[in-house]
Design a protein that fits this description.
468 residues, alpha/beta, 2 domains, 16% strand, globular, binds zinc ion
């Protein structure tokens, strides 16, 4: 059996989805999963809402509700958006389940036992006025690597590098504008340099990835450093180490736990399906394949942090180590990342008001036009501007006039002749040509979809429609 795992980026539970979100991870992953199922593959497609981390905490404070209330609300909204769009998950869960906590802690313990978690004293930011820890994302300043303004404490969106807030030039708090104070604090860091050789060897075998994704991932290796996997925060998964587990002010970094979600969701799905070991078909069968779908701002976590966690957990780094309870787990077959869908040249952003919500779109047009548009004209290999003119042109000319018209004629002809089977005539040369074209299209379109080349696949399918 051909086991195919489709891992879809976990939406952060801090608001409804806009069309920029679903252009990156949603529609492409679903087209891929549906295609794989049609070929007869055994497909598992999992995801869920990512509910830890500071943004949710800050927003809950602002609204005066508990963080779990807020997560519940946004989980519901996101589920509605994604279900409305017809995304065919086998399981869509959450990072706040007991199962997820247990699997995340298992991964951490394996990494810790194998020596890939370094305990270090680092500099953490606090707010001088409140004395509270200031989350990385809420510190802004000039990027020390590329010099761009508005870099966040955890990452620069301009150059894509992960950052430490203490490295930012002229850091300020986004919450109240004050200059943060940096104090000493202890953390666990994932020893990525000890995993670099294995990561490099693995990435060098991934030459059928989208070129921009592979290039970006290989570039990350040139500046590989230990990354903090714990945070000074009271909302998250406890760190399963004596003396840390009960510390209310220390939790695992949200990204450490979010990427484990693919594995924990697969295990949850297996339990729910009544065969608790079924997840192994997708994770420990060496012939199984796994595809991860996301926007480009998440590549780092999928081509470096997550494979790093997997390698360290199974003792495959410079420090060696042993296998742990879950066994030897497959690394990603492919990290399929999209570029950004923009509007009038800007990235979609709820906070900046540059936004079209999925819910509003679905109310007006239903799911098919949006799915078609993203598949044929989405940001597959480059940032792509969404315009209503282009949307209307694609839907009217291609979907309604092209495909709709063909379906209508075929169905009308069948309806008009219902009750009698017309005698087939001789096939003309033109008949044979269109039949051959349609026949061959299964291979041509299939080959494209197999490699996540959605534009190419759907464009060829629509060419056949045009000929027909
Ligand atoms: Zn930068």
């Amino acid at each position: 059996m051909n086991n195919v795992l489709v891992n879809v980026a976990w939406p952060y539970a801090n608001g409804p989805r806009h069309i920029g979100h679903v252009a990156g991870f949603g529609v492409p992953s679903d087209v891929f999963a549906r295609y794989q199922r049609m070929t007869g593959a055994n497909v598992l497609m999992v995801s869920g809402t990512d509910e830890h981390g500071t943004p949710l905490l800050v927003q809950a404070d602002k609204e005066g509700v508990s963080v779990t209330e807020l997560a519940d609300r946004y989980n519901r909204q996101i589920v509605e958006d994604l279900a409305g769009l017809g995304l065919s998950y086998d399981l869509f869960t959450r990072t706040t389940t007991r199962n997820h906590y247990a699997i995340v802690q298992e991964l951490f313990r394996g990494l810790y036992d194998n020596g890939y978690m370094l305990k270090e004293t680092t500099m953490g930011a606090i707010s001088p006025s409140t004395g509270r820890t200031l989350p990385d994302r809420y510190i802004e300043g000039t990027c020390p690597i590329c010099g761009a303004d508005g870099a966040r404490g955890d990452q620069c969106d301009n150059c894509g590098n992960q950052l430490d807030p203490a490295d930012l030039i002229n850091p300020v708090s986004k919450i109240n504008g004050e200059t943060p104070k940096f104090v000493e604090t202890e953390h666990f860091l994932l020893d990525l340099p000890a995993l670099a050789e294995e990561l490099t060897a693995w990435l060098q075998t991934r030459n059928d990835w989208r070129p921009n994704v592979l290039k970006f991932s290989l570039n990350l290796l040139s500046d590989i450093r230990p990354r903090a996997m714990s945070r000074d925060i009271d909302w998250g998964i406890p760190i399963p180490v004596e003396g840390w587990e009960d510390n209310p002010g220390k939790k695992l970094y949200v990204w450490f736990d979010a990427v484990v979600g693919y594995l924990s969701a697969s295990i949850e799905w297996a339990h729910r399906s009544g065969n608790p070991d079924a997840w192994r078909d997708f994770w420990t069968d060496p012939a199984a394949t796994s595809y991860y779908f996301m926007g480009k701002d998440n590549i780092t976590f999928h081509s470096q942090i997550w494979p790093g966690e997997l390698l360290g957990y199974q003792g495959k780094g410079a420090k060696g180590g042993t296998l742990h309870r879950l066994g030897e787990l497959n690394l990603p077959t492919e990290v399929v990342s999209s570029e950004f869908l923009t509007m009038s040249g800007s990235k979609f952003s709820s906070s900046k008001g540059v936004v079209i919500y999925v819910k509003d779109f679905l109310k007006e047009f239903g799911p098919d036009p949006l799915r078609y548009f993203i598949a044929v004209a989405g940001p597959e290999n480059q940032d792509t501007d969404f315009t209503w003119d282009e949307f209307v042109r694609r839907i009217n000319n291609e979907l309604a006039n092209g495909w709709g018209n063909l379906v209508n004629r075929v169905v009308s002809m069948a309806a008009n002749n219902f009750g009698k089977v017309p005698t087939p005539g001789e096939l003309t040369e033109a008949d044979q040509k269109i039949l051959d074209l349609a026949e061959q299209a299964f291979d041509v379109v299939g080959e494209a979809l197999q490699h996540s080349r959605f534009k190419q696949g759907i464009t060829h399918a629509m060419h056949v429609v045009g000929e027909a």
